[in-house]
Amino acid sequence: MNDAPIGVFDSDVGGLSVSREIRSALPHEDLLYVADAGAAPYGDRPVEFIVARARLMVEFLLQLRVKAVVVACNTATAVAVQTLRSHYSIAIIAMEPAVKPAARLTESDVIGVLATSQTLASERYARLTGRFGGDVEILSQACPEFVALVENAELSGAQAEALIARYVTPLVARGADTLVLGCTHFPFLRAAIQTVAGPHVRVIDPATAVARELQRRLQAGDR
Length: 223
Ligand code: DGL
Description:
The protein is an alpha/beta fold.
């Protein structure tokens, strides 16, 4: 058994929502978590900047001899994962907004995707919505202020909910019965998002699926 650690990175604390799922799926693995706090947030930065930072993060983790890298960041995945996979031979597990499960679960045939501007502007996201946009209506909503709420630990309360409502209420009003958390910071706002959206709205976080995929790749001995 390879007992090298697993490397996980994000722009800042958001990816901890993914590492907690990895911790519960793979309790015996060592995790190394890197937050690129000096360069955060990534969400509105130029693509070249995000790609360069993602490469630095992977190279740093490679120096620490990790056996796999989890890109616990939708923004870095959306703009940089192809470059990362073409430059590094290590197994790279990455995020994808959970549009596919949301499209399967919605009963109103309208889903909302909450993410950063760069995730929503990416070709990768356009391909994803192209695959499912024929079956359901996809309302894509950039939520630039949510990351700061999480970084400032304002996870609940009237002020956080008022800000969340500015982005979430219009999606629910347009019929979305399923909301996808397309940024790894947003699961920390999940309770507040659910309060604002109402109990009939399903909120989906893909972190468990990412942890399962990591487990599958490690078992398959992928590099
Ligand atoms: N948590 C990240 C994501 O999943 C990055 C957020 C940011 O730095 O703007 O997109």
